[in-house]
Design brief:
The complex is a heterodimer of chains A (298) and B (347). Chain A is mainly α and 298 residues long. Helix content of chain A is 74%, strand content 1%. Chain A has one domain: Orthogonal Bundle (MetI-like fold), CATH 1.10.3720. Chain A contains 14 helices and 2 strands. Chain A has a two-stranded antiparallel sheet with strand order 1-2. In chain A, α1 crosses α14, α9 packs antiparallel against α10 and α13 packs antiparallel against α14. Helices cover 42% and strands 15% of the residues of chain B. Chain B is an alpha/beta fold and 347 residues long. The chains are: A mainly alpha (298), B alpha/beta (347). Chains A and B meet through α1, α3 and α13 of A and α1, α3, β6 and α14 of B.
């Protein structure tokens, strides 16, 4: 990052600018206070409560809910959620990187059109797009109809593919849902990349693989990091795709939390799961930041 | 200084929001109705508003427990709720429902006597039946040739991977209790242990769990059999007669969905008006047309077509008395949930 010109705090103009800045970020601060800090406080308060016979929340300070979070079954579900989210992130990176790179290398007109194509799916509701995938993957759906019309069934596949309501379907759904969140930040980095550096590396005798590894990847690293975060974080808490495309057979942590609030009538336990889940993010984010700082210094 | 101003601003905003909500609830001529999703036609709500001028604020839930939790958390916001039998029983015991003024509900006379004075409300003081449903087995008879009459047939090895079931822990646990010949409301720790291996086997053979629309997977040919709500099976039968519905021979229950007024309701008068409106035969018929559950309204049944009445999932031929869910109490609900979570994630 480039160094910003330092602000002289004694300068009266600078002070006015500071007041103006507060005014500018006031909506954000209020928003964060109302919809992030306050709800988090409520979540923590609930997580320390217990439930009455009808599932009413009774505020009697206790840590039972947190003890239950560390029951092996929930740890297993946490682990599975992380695995699914990690697989989704890797697949998004592998698929999204070449796309972002390709778009960034085009003429500006083409580039904007291609970017528009990446964003068009957002014009439709996420749930509708998920239902569309159900229509594609189901056993009498679009995919199997195409395969049998083209003769691939039974030539290659002995019978229609039973993809829907399997873990594979969940991963397809997750990758589809989050791919744009990987492409856009990487595109941002790749577009800014000075191509002269790539050419210089070639001129100095580096092969394509070496250029990619030692020049292109490091220069687009901020985009990669942002993309991975933008995919991994929401993917880990997803519950709609596991329910709709996975047939609710395999739960992720989002499903378990959702269930505590809608069916099991255990707000406090759901809240405790939510708090642990949030802490997990804060921890991993802090770890990433710390490592990043160390790398920058080193 | 800045901090204080910001804090005040936040608090001020929060108060304005709360005051706004309260003002909305107090306005005359409204009814805050909290009902099941996909259970009441919009035309019925519109018809009521057109006739009485009362605006219906319709909010939905998709499980009885969700409704219970919200009702207990935000007391007094709802004027009319739609609890199932066992939830109503719990609410009555907890003093959360108010006694109905039956003089204001003359159309209650249209309801068939077998759906009155049931175990959840033995004196018929707090609730009025809305619709009745069963949970049973639906079979695509084009794909499954051998007869399916009970849970043992449904969950047999040869149907593995071809089954959809409702995603409802208590329903599935009850099915397992029935298959052992046990009482459907007895969730003692011993019974929960007894059904564990049965459910584990069943879950291994289930293709998907879906409470919202189990008919979708059956219609799409992704599965051939299901343990589903009667109303879903009725819609399937209307779509294609190959979908046959049967109440499991090991045991079957019905659920009675009710109308009730929470203890702290504000627009009590309007709630009574709406209940009576729903019990009119011609209005009740509109509900049956769109949501083909079992209509407890005898006068409305007379208005239904022969085909509607012949639908085996709406009006199953019942050769026995069907059980109903009772309020369990204690931590039975939590133990069922823990068992189901455990089994679903065992693999």
């Amino acid at each position: 990052m480039q160094a910003l010109p330092s602000v002289n705090l004694e300068n009266p103009h600078a002070r006015r600018a500071r007041a103006g800045a507060w005014l500018l970020i006031a909506p954000l601060v209020i928003w964060l206070g109302l919809f992030v800090v306050a709800p988090l406080g409520i979540l923590v308060a609930y997580s320390l409560a217990s439930t009455g016979e009808l599932g009413q929340v009774e505020f009697a300070l206790n840590f039972d809910n947190y003890v239950r979070v560390f029951d092996p079954i929930y740890l297993k579900i946490f682990g599975r959620s992380i695995a699914y989210a990690a697989l989704t992130t890797v697949l998004c990176l592998v698929i999204g990187y070449p796309v972002a790179w390709y778009i960034a290398r085009q003429r500006p007109v083409v580039r904007n059109r291609l970017l528009l194509l990446v964003m068009i799916p957002f014009w439709t509701s996420f749930l509708i797009r998920t239902y569309a995938w159900i229509a594609i993957l189901r056993s009498e759906g679009l995919l199997n109809a195409t395969l049998s019309a083209s003769g691939a069934i039974p030539a290659i596949f002995p019978e229609p593919l039973a993809l829907l309501y399997t873990p594979t379907a969940v991963v397809i759904g997750l990758v589809y849902a989050y791919l744009p969140f990987m492409i856009l930040p990487i595109y941002g980095s790749a577009e800014k990349l000075d191509h002269a550096l790539v050419e210089a590396a070639h001129d100095l005798g580096a092969g394509p693989l070496r250029v990619f590894r030692e020049v292109i990847i490091p220069l687009t690293r901020p985009g990669i990091a942002a993309g991975m975060l933008l995919v991994f974080v929401p993917a880990i808490g997803m519950f709609a795709i596991t329910d709709l495309m996975g047939g609710a057979r395999v739960s992720m942590i989002g499903n378990v939390i959702h269930n505590q609030f809608t069916k099991a009538l255990n707000y406090p336990f759901g809240a405790a799961l939510g708090v642990v889940f949030t802490l997990l993010f804060v921890l991993s984010y802090a770890l990433l930041q710390w490592r990043g700082r160390r790398r920058d210094r080193g | 200084m800045n901090k204080i101003i910001r804090l005040l601003l936040v608090i001020g905003l929060a108060f304005t929001a709360v005051a706004g909500l309260q003002a909305q609830g107090k306005r005359k001529g409204t009814l805050n109705f909290y009902g099941w999703s996909e259970y009441i036609p919009q035309s019925v709500l519109d018809g009521f508003t057109a006739e009485t001028g009362i605006k219906v604020n319709y909010e939905t839930f998709s499980s009885g427990e969700e409704m219970l939790a919200k009702l207990l958390a935000g007391r007094g916001r709802y004027d009319l709720i739609q609890p199932s039998d066992y939830i109503a029983e719990a609410l009555i015991q907890a003093g959360q429902l108010q006694a109905l003024d039956l003089a204001k509900i003359p159309n209650l006379k249209n309801v068939l006597p077998e759906y009155l004075n049931m175990p959840h409300d033995p004196e018929q003081k707090f609730t009025v039946p809305y619709m009745i449903g069963t949970v049973g087995i639906v079979v695509n008879t084009e794909k499954v040739k051998e007869p399916v009459t009970g849970y043992a047939d449904l969950f047999s090895e040869k149907h593995a991977g071809r089954i959809v079931v409702v995603d409802d822990g208590r329903e599935l646990a009850v099915a397992a209790l029935y298959s052992l010949g046990k009482n459907l409301n007895d969730f003692s720790p011993e019974n929960l242990e007894a059904i564990r291996p049965i459910l584990a086997t069943w879950f291994g053979r289930v293709k998907l769990f879906d409470s919202d629309s189990p008919k979708t997977a059956l219609l799409g040919g992704d599965v051939d059999l299901g343990l589903v709500w009667g109303g879903e099976a009725a819609i399937l039968w209307n779509e294609d007669k190959k979908f046959q519905y049967v109440l499991p021979k090991e045991g079957a229950h019905m659920f009675v969905d009710l109308m009730a007024i929470p203890a702290r309701a504000r627009n009590v008068e309007n709630a009574h008006l709406f209940i009576d409106y729903l019990l009119r035969p011609e209005v009740s018929k509109l509900i049956s047309d769109e949501f083909p559950y079992t209509n407890p309204n005898g006068e409305a049944r007379k208005l239904l077509s022969a085909e509607q009445l012949a639908n085996p999932a709406s009006y199953p031929k019942i050769d026995r008395k069907l059980d109903t869910f009772r309020h369990l109490g204690g931590d039975a609900g939590a133990r069922i949930d823990a068992l189901i979570t455990d089994l679903k994630n065992a693999r």
